[in-house]
Amino acid sequence: MRCVIFITLLASLGMGCGRKCELPEPQSASLMAPLEYESTVKVKIDSSFSPFQQLEIRQAVMQWNRFSDEKLRYAFFATEVATPTGADRPKNIGDCDFSGSSDSEFWILREEDSGRWKSLGLTNSNPGVTIRCGSGSSISQQVIFLNTSLVDPRQFVSVALHELGHAVGLDHSCQLAGGSKDFVACGSVGSPHPYREAVMYPALRSILPLTGQPEKKEVLMGNDHERAACLYGAQ
Ligand SMILES: [Zn+2]
Predict the structure, then answer these.
(1) What CA–CA distance (Å, rounded) separates 18 from 138?
(2) N or C of the chain: less Cβ packing under 10 Å?
């Protein structure tokens, strides 16, 4: 069965530091650096997304804001539509010399160019990516790319919601390749395990056997909430 695979690219960013709680061992190494800015971060939506795609990105943003409003008493994100410059786009893996991002704002950029996608280390199986840059346990900048030529439109919200989870600081709920005692392999968590049902599971199925429809995850699940609450000390 074909799946779209999510990956997160991390450049010189320490993982697992500054954590405010400990998760159970199968996921204890699954947290990344949280958003530094303890107030609302501006999310700039690329104006080249269609109006409907912009609306769907806002729908995904609202999901994360619902969580943070309840647990932290502030909204993680405020959106605005803007037009990026070429300097706002990382050009390859490890390129952290892009502008337009700081601890208080980042872009969600549209990409369709297969050459540029490949330069980022991505394949046709990757519908989106979050690139995070920083040192130690803090992020200096980050950017989300959504590839509108690769995302099934029916899964667009799901992909945006997942990538925003990386922007918040969550790594995947399990590891597709490998796996360890503190970051479990996905092969050992089949449905309906909470790690498998999570938005942050690292793949989405193109076709669900029962319905014949693509898999959608448009609502944050218990495991997503638990890990985000842990990362932000909100338990
Ligand atoms: Zn991912």
Answers:
(1) 9
(2) N
